Each structure stands twice: as structure tokens, then as C-alpha cells.
Amino acid sequence: MLEIIHPGQVEKYNREMEEKSALIIQKHWRGYRERKNFRQQRPSLTEYKAAVTLQRADFYSYDKNIDHL
Question: Which InterPro entries match (predicted)?
């Protein structure tokens, strides 16, 4: 989309466009970096959840066995 800009406003317009462009690039870069980090951490998160599940199951079965003593 073309815009008509007064010659005295060209520098201001260029600065604003540069700032907006930089923000868009930063937003995309940060999103990419976080998605990449999450993909790398996913196996560890799965292992952690499995360990917690096993520990809970063991705790509850231990708790039930104590009640029967």
C-alpha cells in the first residue's frame, strides 16, 4: 500500500517503519527460539511427568498398605 507523505515527514516515517519492522522481526525470532527450546525440552517434561505419576502411585499404594497394618 502506497502512502503519500509530505517531504518534511519522510525521516519520521522512515524511523517509524524501521521501528515497526524491527519489532516484527524480534517477535518472530523470539517465537521461533521459544518453540525450538520447547521442542528440545519436551522429552524431559514427559519423563518428569512419568516419574511424578509413578511416585504418586507408589505413595498411594504405600499409604493403603499402612492403613491395613
Answer: IQ_motif_EF-hand-BS, IQCB1
Residues in Cβ contact with 3 at an 8 Å cutoff, skipping those fewer than 6 apart: 13
CB 13 within 8 A of CB 5: yes
Residue 11 near residue 19, CB atoms below 8 Å: no
CB count within 10 Å of CB 12 equals 11
What backbone phi and psi angles, to 5 degrees, belong to 12? -60, -45
CA distance 26 to 37: 16
Sign of CA dihedral 61, 63, 66, 68: negative
| Reported confidence tier of residue 10, pLDDT bands at 50, 70, 90 | very high
pLDDT tens for residues 20-45? 999 999 999 999 999 999 888 888 88
